[in-house]
């Protein structure tokens, strides 16, 4: 019976983890009864660096690609079998391996649940945030998907790091900034009005002045959604302050491009019904 088997695999029991294993306990910790043990042992052995170099340099990348599927099959109660392998892959010297994990860490978080995610995935996630752009983009593309799974206090810690996404290894990598603007639109639902005003507003204004038009167009949408979110908040002082700053920063800008930005933001606010028309006026 497939349904009952899946239910058995994915029940939440036995989530305890212990990192101080003896060698014998370490061997036992890799034992499970969902798939043939020899099959799992073969998979785990493929991440051995010496084996990867002698057999196939791409083998670690394939292991990283398959890991969420293996974790789903084993269930979260058997995560202890994969934890060491995951950490080995996350620190692999090949950026392609780390990039593969960065693109799937949000899926793994869903499989493991909030308790294991906070303990075992958040440190890896933090490492990816400081990695090469090729790795960081994997985290950035699913930033909202990952952060929404964290508790509010843990989620707020990342507000201080969002600014770092404006800095890239290559300044011409404008798609990175465009993706940041897209993710910030989604992140508006995860944070309070004060957090939006204090942390997301400065980033949005910076993106509105980007040199690449594609980034600016997404940023106008971001500012419009920000106005809408702050207007709907009970404390209306934030939306008033935001609109005053839009007038001061863009409408009265000495450069024509700044004044043009103001017109485009007004267009977005009007077309997307971000404000009642009397408030807009």
Automatic annotation (TrEMBL):
InterPro entries in the cross-refs: ARM-like (IPR011989), ARM-type_fold (IPR016024), PP2A_Regulatory_Subunit_A (IPR051023)
Gene Ontology terms, MF aspect: protein phosphatase regulator activity
Annotated region (Disordered), positions in chain: 11-30
Alphabetically ordered keywords of this record: Repeat
Any one Gene Ontology cellular component term annotated for this protein: cytoplasm
UniProt key word Calcium: no
Record protein name field: PP4R1 phosphatase
Gene that encodes it: Ppp4r1_1
């Amino acid at each position: 019976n497939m349904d009952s088997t899946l239910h058995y695999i994915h029940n939440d029991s036995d989530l305890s983890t212990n990192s101080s294993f003896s060698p014998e306990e370490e061997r036992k910790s890799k034992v499970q009864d969902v798939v043939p043990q020899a099959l799992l042992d073969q998979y785990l052995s493929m991440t051995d660096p010496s084996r990867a170099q002698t057999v196939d340099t791409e083998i670690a990348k394939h292991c990283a690609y398959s890991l969420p599927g293996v974790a789903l099959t084993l269930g979260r109660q058997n995560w202890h079998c994969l934890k060491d392998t995951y950490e080995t892959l996350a620190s692999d010297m090949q950026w392609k391996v780390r990039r593969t994990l960065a693109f799937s860490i949000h899926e793994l978080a869903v499989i493991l649940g909030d308790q294991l995610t906070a303990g075992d995935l958040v440190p890896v996630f933090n490492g990816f945030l400081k990695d090469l752009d090729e790795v960081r983009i994997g985290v950035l593309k699913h930033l909202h998907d990952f952060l929404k799974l964290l508790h509010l206090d843990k989620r707020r810690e990342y507000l201080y790091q969002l600014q770092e996404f404006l800095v890239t290894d290559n300044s011409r990598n404008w798609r990175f900034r465009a993706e940041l603007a897209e993710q910030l639109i989604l992140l508006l639902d995860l944070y309070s009005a004060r957090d939006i005003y204090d942390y997301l507003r400065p980033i949005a204004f910076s993106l509105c002045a980007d040199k690449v038009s594609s980034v600016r167009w997404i940023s106008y949408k971001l500012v419009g959604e920000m106005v809408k979110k702050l207007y709907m908040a009970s404390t209306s002082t934030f939306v008033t302050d935001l609109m005053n700053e839009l007038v001061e920063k863009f409408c009265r800008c000495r450069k024509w491009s700044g004044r043009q930005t103001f017109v485009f933001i007004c267009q977005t606010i009007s077309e997307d019904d971000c404000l009642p028309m009397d408030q807009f006026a």
